[in-house]
């Protein structure tokens, strides 16, 4: 499949993806808001699942995730991911707001490199495999505890999917850090690749993790194909 064919196939797969995203005015919902069913935040599962489907279709292999999963995955989380088109966040455990992307990239067979400066992420991921998935850390998953930008600067190889989910919304320079992370990876990206950014469901007064990255990518020839809780970009080939 040529790069142009990959781009066309990816575009076709994005057609019809619809999630009624609630765009938030603040960083966090209260427990009462989250449990009421009236005000809720979308969980990332539908976006992650679609990203995996696209990456498989275009024969992508290598995923670099900046910002690792922070909580153990359970069998109920896997069920929600597998049937998320027919379920809502109220059907999922609260931990699924984290997304558990690390696990799902690995489960879909991608060579997954996940990076987080917080050492607790590695501990939680290992616990998820040991306590719930009942299997050792797979060979196609590599877990790193270091700064994501420095990791990208030193990464060897080509990246098919760059998944940006580091620096929490509201923390110091979080928008600048996500832009800097992309720039650090820019010369490591495959000819055809996908950029996915989590936590983009905030109105402008707060601004998501793509606050500075979005205009930069558009200026550099990317197409925004899916948006909401997460935003997915493809490069025009």
Fold and architecture overview:
The chain is of the alpha/beta class. It has one domain (3-235): Rossmann fold, CATH 3.40.50.150. Helices cover 37% and strands 16% of the residues. It has nine helices and seven strands, in the order H-H-H-E-H-H-E-H-E-H-E-H-E-H-E-E. It has helices at 3-14, 31-36, 45-57, 75-82, 101-107, 119-133, 148-154, 174-185, 213-219; strands at residues 62-66, 111-115, 141-144, 159-164, 189-197, 222-226, 231-235. A seven-stranded mixed beta sheet has the order 3-2-1-4-5-7-6, with helices on both faces. Helix 1 packs antiparallel against helix 3. It is globular and about 45 Å long.
From the structure above, extract its key features:
237 residues; alpha/beta; 7-stranded mixed beta sheet; globular
Average pLDDT rating: 91
Query: How many extended strands?
Result: 7
Helix content: 25-40%
Name the overall outline. globular
The largest pleated sheet is described as: 7 strands, mixed
Q: List the total number of helices.
A: 9
Order of helices and strands: HHHEHHEHEHEHEHEE
- Radius of gyration (CA) equals 17 Å
What oligomerization state is this entry in?
Answer: single chain
Strand content: 15-25%
Q: Classify the fold: give the CATH topology.
A: Rossmann fold
* CATH H-level superfamily: Vaccinia Virus protein VP39
Given as residue ranges, the uncertain stretches (5+ residues, pLDDT < 50) are: none
CATH class division: Alpha Beta
Judged by helices, strands and strand pairing, the structural class is alpha/beta
**Total domain modules:** 1
| CATH architect. name | 3-Layer(aba) Sandwich
Separation of termini? Answer: 13 Å
